[in-house]
Amino acid sequence: MLESPTGTGKTMSVICSALQWVLDQRRQQESQEACGNGDGGVGSDDEPDWLRNFVVNKDPQVKEDKVKNKKDKFRYLSRKADKKEKENKKIDTTDVDDKEFLLEEYESEEEGDLGSVMLKRKATKSMLNSSSEDESDDAEGEEDEKKFKVYFCSRTHSQLSQFIKELQKTIFANEMTVVSLGSRKNLCINKDVLSLGNSTRINERCLELQKKKKNEATRVKLENVHCHVERYFVRFRSLLGPANRRYIQTLMVLTQAFLRVLLNEKNGNPMDSYHDIEHASEESRTSDFTMAINDFIFELNIDNINLIKLLKYIKESNIMHKVNSYGEKVANLENTSARNEIREHGEEGGCLSAFQALADILLSLTNNDSDGRIIVSRFSSSSSFRKQGGYIKFVMLSGEKIFSEIVDQAHAVLLVGGTLQPIEETRERLFPWLPPNQLHFFSCGHIVPPDSIMPIAVSRGPSGRSFDFSYSSRSSLDMMRELGLLLCNLVTVVPEGIVVFFPSFDYEGKVYELWGSSGIIERITRRKRIFREPRNNMEVESVLKEYKDTISSQSGAVLLAVVGGKISEGINLSDGMGRCVIMVGLPYASPSDIELLERIKHIEGFRNLKSIENIPFGASCDVYSGDAQGGFDILRSCSQRGKEYYENLCMKAVNQSIGRAIRHINDYAAILLVDTRYASDSSKRSLSHPVNKLPQWIKDRLVSSTNNYGEVHRLLHQFFKFKKRS
Questions:
Q1: What is the pLDDT of residue 85?
Q2: Which of these, 491, 493, 567, 557, lies nearest to 536 by C-alpha position?
Q3: 3-class SS shares of the chain: helix, strand, coil, % to 5
Q4: What does the CA dihedral 227, 233, 235, 238 come to, rounded to 10 degrees?
Q5: Are residues 313 and 355 in the same domain?
Q6: Which residues pair with 454 in a beta bridge?
Q7: Which of the two ends of the chain, N or C, has the fewest CB atoms closer than 10 A to its terminal CB?
């Protein structure tokens, strides 16, 4: 694990060390092979040439035989597939236009004569179209494939682009073959997103669509899939082979089972009666709840379905695209009402994205029972319930299984980040089986000089009021007004750009509204123009560009941002864009977040088992009312481990946000931590104190206590005066 702040050369360090090791290993391997070939084989130099040549040429002959056998096998399958196609698929002339939507004939393991899963027509024809020369090339390609590889995985596309740029600066650019497998513009399958054209707009729209529902299978998506699959099945039922019919019927059974959960129905076809749920009384609707994977499968009565084979079928049969294409054709040819029906069911991104959400849920059900939980959420308000209808989602609680596979297969695994501490939690969640001597941690400080940052814990505002932005106090009018007065004073002393991070969009909206009605906005804009982070990621780029241009042309600007938003996670606020970063309070995650509470309970090892009325389940579930008080009750009952996890999430968000400002060695900025909980005597701090979880390069320079705001103002004035001279 390598922890190093932004701008310190993490990427270049990884490239140079890892790729040099690979080159050394390859050269060593080539040297050994050269020495081995020079020995003349197992025998001595007395062996005749024909014997040595025979040994050398043995492998190519074997490969040719294998290619010939494969060719014969696929020819046999092709003849059989074509014969069966002529017998079973007698398509009328009126059906020719729809033939392109017909699924290839499919055989599973127990059905195939040769014991393999394949699409016979598709596999055989594609293989026969390739020449024997191509097959020989493939065989040689496998032989020449390099043994040592480096996989660089990133959370964002921009980091992959940065990696390629850094690699091109090194000597390894000519030594290595590199390919980037991350490109929304080249690999995106969403036609509406691709039509945007500009790569930046494509990236933003893609992120927005992902952030909306992520991997949730919403009611609308499930209805979308069921509608399209049912329409497809009715049209092609008589033309499909037995395996295709069976798998498609299985898909419809699963979508109906999932919809019954969301619609609170014990039996019957949910597609025929889901509209009735809008008129159900509030009392008949239950709270959100979670279940173990096995309980969920058994209670839905789908334990007799082989999900592994079904997922394989979805992947190999191309059913997603066939069903989606046929649905689009129907929508274009039929009357307006049919098109509206398709759009209504596809309002969350179309059939493809809905089908993928279903496949993701099916894949999650193949995990170990202890790996995660299934969340079932129903919306109680009539308007939102009608529009979204709730969702089914899998939350992964343990990454141990996935990481164990990676660690077992890789020579070495390197986790790199700017903020990795505390590492105990990461180690316990990802690789608890590793002995201490196999996990190495290295952390380094920042490259910026100590006098280039001015971190201050601000406990009091200009009028002397103590800053307390805890959940129960932050909505106080006096507290929000005091924060506004603080900003009114800061715009007089801080040059260029000021970035203010709020805990949430909702709180930022409340504060901005109060500032507008009390005249604070007007006072601030006399000095600096105010910009606000938009909720829509598509608009962030334009706001940032205008913010930057305003700083360059005028006396500066103020940017109101949100922790967890795009600006806090992926934007560089270097130089004038972030001369002062203000963190308002401690941005703890919402205690009403079901996923958060499930992770905390997993860490703690307890469940709040309850039975639920009015749902088609007999199993015990964890019930959530959706209010913050219930979450606080769970947090209070936690031991130190659960509370520490909750605190660590908060402080990692703080560290990530305030780290946006210092991006290179010549950069400088002030960092204001506005809350009395940041301020304390260093000798009296406990291990769980927020300041102890700040990066060392900030903690070493932190002014942790000030008597009043006047002292803060004086420190800032001296800091910027000194940096201006230097």
A1: 54
A2: 567
A3: 55, 10, 35
A4: -170
A5: yes
A6: 670
A7: C
Question: Can you tell me the distance from the alpha carbon of 620 to that of 696, in angstroms, rounded to the nearest whole number?
Answer: 46
Domain check: are 277 and 383 in the same one?
yes
**H or E segment at 669?**
strand 669-674
Q: Strand pairing partners for 531?
A: 559
pLDDT digits (tens, 9 = 90+) for 415-426: 998 877 767 778
Cis upstream peptide for 60 (omega within 30°): no
Q: How many CB atoms within 10 Å of residue 400?
A: 17
Report residue 508's pLDDT band, with 50, 70 and 90 as the boundaries.
Answer: very high
pLDDT one-digit tens code per residue, 162-179: 888 899 999 998 888 888
Query: Please, what is the average pLDDT of the chain?
Result: 79
Say which DSSP state 401 is in.
Answer: H
Asked if residue 557 and residue 422 are part of one domain, the reply reads no
Contacts of 208 (CB under 8 A, 6+ apart): 536, 537, 538
Distance CA 434, CA 427 (A): 9
* Strands 609-610 and 621-624, sheet pairing: antiparallel
Q: Is residue 183 within 8 Å of residue 160, measured between CB atoms?
A: no
Diameter of the chain measured on Cα atoms: 100
Tell me the pTM: 0.75
Looking at the domain assignment, is residue 370 inside a domain? yes
How far is it, in rounded angstroms, from Cα 473 to Cα 333? 59
Element (H, E) at 32: helix 10-38
**Whether 557 contacts 542, CB under 8 Å:** no
Residue whose token pair is 């294998």: 66
Distance (Å, whole) CA 156 – CA 166: 16
Same domain for 355 and 219? Answer: yes
The DSSP letter of residue 348 is T
What is the extent of the structural domain holding 413? 2-7+402-443
What is the number of alpha carbons within 13 Å of residue 139 lying toward its C-beta? 17
Q: Residue 547: CA atoms inside 13 Å, Cβ hemisphere, count?
A: 26
In tens, the pLDDT along 610-662 reads: 444 444 444 457 777 667 778 888 888 888 888 888 988 899 899 888 888 88
Q: Is the Cβ–Cβ distance between 581 and 573 less than 8 Å?
A: yes
- The burial of 638, by beta-carbon neighbours within 10 Å (0-12 exposed, 13-18 middle, 19 or more buried), is given as middle
Q: Based on the domain organization, do 437 and 544 belong to the same domain?
A: no
Alpha-carbon span 346 to 354, nearest angstrom: 8
Query: Are residues 551 and 432 part of one domain?
Result: no
Q: How far is CA 579 from the centre of its chain?
A: 31
As a whole number of angstroms, the distance between CA 670 and CA 497 comes to 11
| 57 pLDDT above the threshold of 70 | no
